[in-house]
Write a structure and sequence with these properties.
Shape: globular
Radius of gyration: 23 Å
Largest sheet: 8 strands, antiparallel
Structural class: alpha+beta
Strand content: over 45%
Number of strands: 13
Order of helices and strands: HEHHEEEEEEEEEEEE
Distance between the termini: 78 Å
C-alpha cells in the first residue's frame, strides 16, 4: 500500500511539473532529478526522464526535437563551480547519431535548478570532465556504415563572456578507411588506405594549466577489389609523438609548446 501511495505521489509530482514548466521552462525541480537518479522502477524512470528532457528542449530552444523525446539519450553530471562555489548540473542530450546538446543548470535553492547556458554543435557525448574553468567533452563521430570512419575525440571548452568557447580538440581513437583513387586519380583501383590514431590525454593541474597529448599514428595499405578485411591491411608506417600544450591566458587558447618524436617505424624492405 505504501509503495502504491509513493508511486501515485510521484506521478502527481510529474503532472504538476508538466504544468509548471509551460510557464517556467527555465527551471527543473531538484526532486524530479533526484527521483530519476534513484528510481529503480523502469516505467517511472522513463516518465521522469521524458519530463526532464522536455523541459531542457524548451529551455534551450530545441523544441523541434520534442517529437523524438522517447529516443533521446541523457547523461547527467554534477559539479561545484570553482569561481562561485555554486552547485551546477549538466545534462548531455544525444539527440541523434550526429547531433548532441549540453544544457547547464545551476542550483537556485534547495528545490530548484535554474537554466544557465548551453553548448551546441556537438556530436554524441560519451563523457564530461570538469577541469577548473574548463569542460572536457568526449564525443564520437561514428560513420562506419558507408563512410568507414570513426573519431572518438576530446574537445575542451572555456566559459568566457557568458558563452562556452572551444579551445582544444584532439582525437584519442580514430580510424579511417578509404580507396586511394578517391584522393589520387592515378592510384590503382584496388588500393585501400587505412589511418589509425590512438592517443592519451593527461591534464596537468599546474600554473599555467597544461595538456600532455601522446599520440600514435599508424598507416596501412591493402589491395582488394571490395572492402578489405582487417587481415588484408599491411602496416606501412607508425610513429609516436608527445605534444605539450600550455594555456595562454592572453590568447585564451592552448598553445603547442613542445612536440617530440618518441618512436618512428618504417616497414623493412
Amino acid at each position: 500500500m505504501k509503495k502504491i501511495i509513493c508511486i501515485l505521489s510521484l506521478l502527481l509530482l510529474i503532472n504538476i511539473f508538466t504544468l509548471a514548466f509551460r510557464s517556467y521552462s527555465n527551471i527543473i525541480p531538484i526532486g524530479i532529478v533526484d527521483s530519476y537518479l534513484n528510481s529503480e522502477n523502469v516505467y517511472e524512470k522513463q516518465q521522469l526522464k521524458k519530463q526532464i528532457i522536455t523541459s531542457i528542449l524548451n529551455a534551450t530552444g530545441y523544441d523541434k526535437w520534442l517529437e523524438y523525446v522517447d529516443y533521446i539519450d541523457m547523461k547527467i553530471y554534477k559539479n561545484i563551480n570553482d569561481s562561485d562555489k555554486k552547485e551546477e548540473i549538466l545534462f548531455a542530450l544525444n539527440l541523434s547519431k550526429d547531433s548532441a546538446l549540453i544544457a547547464i543548470y545551476e542550483k537556485l535553492n534547495n528545490t530548484t535548478y535554474l537554466y544557465k547556458n548551453k553548448i551546441t554543435n556537438l556530436v554524441p557525448v560519451k563523457n564530461v570532465t570538469f577541469l577548473n574553468n574548463f569542460l572536457a567533452i568526449e564525443q564520437v563521430i561514428d560513420e562506419r556504415f558507408g563512410a568507414f570512419f570513426i573519431d572518438n575525440f576530446i574537445q575542451i571548452y572555456l566559459y568566457d563572456d557568458n558563452v562556452y568557447k572551444s579551445v582544444f580538440k584532439q582525437s584519442v581513437d580514430y580510424e579511417e578507411i578509404y580507396k586511394a583513387i578517391w584522393v589520387d586519380k592515378n592510384a590503382p583501383d584496388n588500393l585501400w588506405n587505412k589511418t589509425k590514431i590512438v592517443a592519451s590525454i593527461d591534464y596537468l593541474d599546474e600554473d599555467p594549466f597544461k595538456i600532455l597529448y601522446i599520440v600514435t599514428t599508424s598507416r596501412y595499405k591493402a589491395e582488394s577489389a571490395s572492402f578489405p578485411k582487417d587481415e588484408n591491411f599491411k602496416k606501412e608506417s607508425e610513429k609516436t609523438e608527445k605534444h605539450l600544450y600550455v594555456w595562454d591566458q592572453q590568447r585564451k587558447s592552448f598553445v603547442l609548446k613542445e612536440k617530440t618524436d618518441i618512436k618512428k617505424e618504417q616497414p623493412k624492405i
